[in-house]
Amino acid sequence: MSCWKKCPGSPPRWRDDTAPFAQIPPACPHCNGLVRPGVVWCGEALDPDVLDQAEAAADCDVFLTIGTSSVVYPAASFIEQARRNGAFTVEINPEATPASSIADLVLRGPAEVVLPEVDATRSAEL
Ligand SMILES: [Zn+2]
User: Could you tell me the pTM of the whole model?
Assistant: First the structure.
């Protein structure tokens, strides 16, 4: 999240895992103004630090790409990067995307359905 007004007291962005939020929409803890989600909207540039973190995350054993069209770069390139790094790649999406042809495993369906099934399977195997 980040402060919509980028008020002087707030960090550039922060993580808030509160669920449900105490108020909707959530407010900036510093100026009580509106906050915006930690996403990149059309026309915005990627934060270089976030891009670095995403590239670092592609250096992993298992890489999941979930609920994305896989057509917007550079985000669409992370599955390719993860494969080059030797990761087992999984795509979870209701529809085929360009990532479908390179993923090691494709789980077709909406994330809210597929992820609980994956979790239940994993829990049963432990
Ligand atoms: Zn603020």
Answer: 0.71
- Each residue of 68-83: pLDDT tens digit? 999 988 889 999 999 9
**CB of 37 within 8 A of CB of 24?**
no
Nearest-angstrom CA–CA distance, 85 and 75: 16
Q: 75 alpha carbon to ligand 1 midpoint, in Å?
A: 28
Condensed to tens digits (0 to 9), the pLDDT of residues 27-36 reads: 999 999 999 9
User: Ligand 1 center to residue 82 CA distance, Å?
Assistant: 36
CA 2 / ligand 1 centre spacing (Å): 8
Domains by residue range for the chain, with CATH: 1-39 (no CATH), 48-125 (3.40.50.1220)
Alpha-carbon gap, residue 122 to 110, rounded angstroms? 18
Question: What's the gap in Å between 27 CA and the centre of ligand 1?
Answer: 8
